[in-house]
Write a structure and sequence with these properties.
142 residues; alpha/beta; three-stranded parallel sheet; two-stranded parallel ribbon; 7 helices; 35% helix; 23% strand
Length: 142
Amino acid sequence: AKVLDDGQIESRIRPEMRQILRWAEGRDVPIYVVSASPIAIIEVGTARLGVQVTGALAMTPALGEGDLLLPHLDGPVVYGDGKVRALEQAGVASRLLGAFGDSAYDAAMLRVARVPVAVTPAPRLVALLPGIAGVSELAIRR
């Protein structure tokens, strides 16, 4: 929580995305947060979105006996193509209504969504947009 507070995470949550998340929640559309960040950070951060999140899919450390941190992950590397693998393991990749991403590492996930949205995309993702069928672009309003 301190890391998120110090990084002023609330100020970085795009108002447009809050509206989309509220729309989804109001229609009982499951909401998954898929991130290459550590699961502990994502779980704390999703609580600040103001909506009910169905699942958080992120880098999850493997734990041994007595919660000993092991030197590998429990589950897929949630990065690039691994985001799709994480969604597959959660049983939702084949029916993914929408996906939102800002980085080239989100391209694989955007490709499997019925409604792919590039949110203020970084230059490397912009270069990949022609290869993502039906992609829309959402820019921050200033």
